[in-house]
Amino acid sequence: MCLTALSCMLFPSADATPHHPSQLRKRLLGVCASGIGGGVEKVLFEIELQKSKMAVSSSASGALLDCLWSVGACSVKHRFLPRGYESFRHLRALRWDWAFSEVYFLYKLLMVVLMQDAWHDAFTWPLLVFLVSACVYPLASSCAHTFSTMSTRARHVCFFFDYGALSFYSLGSAITYSAYVIPDKWVNSTFHLYYIPIAVVNTVICTALACYSRFPECQSPKLGKMLRILAFAYPYLFDNIPVFYRIFMCTGEGCTDNETNPLHYRHTALAFLTAFLFATHLPERLAPGCFDYIGHSHQLFHVCAIIGTHFQMQAIELDMAVRRQWLQAHGPPITFANTLGAALLCVCLSLCVIYTFSLPLYWAPARKSKRRRTKTPAKVSN
């Protein structure tokens, strides 16, 4: 059933008296249970569109807002996942993919802080930034998937923070690559000099483009998906230029060919597998309904991303240990500005971007309610 038919079912006539709140609730929950319309976001969009066309009384409007929460609490439907992958039961049962990784990364972070004297050893600061970013992005993603079902507005804002956390993780990777992974022949080069500043700019672009991709998604889901893939593929490819050159292209002296390279191969392979699963929606595309709870692409790319981050962390720590003396003698000094300072700047700029994209979600309903209040006395006087 198309959205137009759905709107006719919920609102039979624009001139008719609004239904009783209990009837509206039953209709909306019935829509959510049957999976009509291809997604809660489209359902909410259509309901808001119909509300703007109708002269709804204040009591009925309040009932609609209450029913909108009920719709938002339902599973977010997907074309190949009829039962949805964000139902509350699923979230409670299968959030292990982020929970275990969060505990593991937090343990690694505490070990660096407590065992390696991170407060006085500036050489560990890039690793510290990376571990913080590795702790933040699983936590932000888990919170986004958990609380996004509350409402359409909450869904957008939650995933804005999720995108910001992924951008922060991208910058954390760039900072560690600049400090520990970059090939010997590129140390102190022009590329090395501007590598982190460009990575900071890419972080802001990534967050802004990923946030913007949610707005055209309702009218054109493919466009929104393409923009989101581009938003994260571009900074990943740029950040990994030193790794790609080192393990695929560099020959001869100065290529830093050591025992860390196999770990970089594994991380790279898992990163591309993660992107492949996110873009193709396999395996649920081949058997819709069979992978609603376990084994769908969203869960698999979470697992691949975490395992890839684990190999990335091992490679960074090994490069840090093996190359420490040479890098401290020949590399640029590691300072607050090119480690913790860049990370703090990234966080501030990403929060500004998130605030900019979140503001219209709160400003538009407030403006509509203000207009409604100003028009009410005129209607009463007539």
From TrEMBL:
GO MF annotations in UniProt: metal ion binding; signaling receptor activity
Keywords recorded for this protein, A-Z: Membrane, Metal-binding, Signal, Transmembrane, Transmembrane helix, Zinc
Membrane topology: Multi-pass membrane protein
Pfam family, one: HlyIII
Residues noted as binding Zn(2+) in the record, renumbered to the chain: 145, 298, 302
Transmembrane segments: 96-116, 122-140, 160-182, 194-215, 227-248, 336-363
Similarity-based family: Belongs to the ADIPOR family.
Full protein name: Uncharacterized protein
Organism, as annotated: Albula glossodonta (roundjaw bonefish)
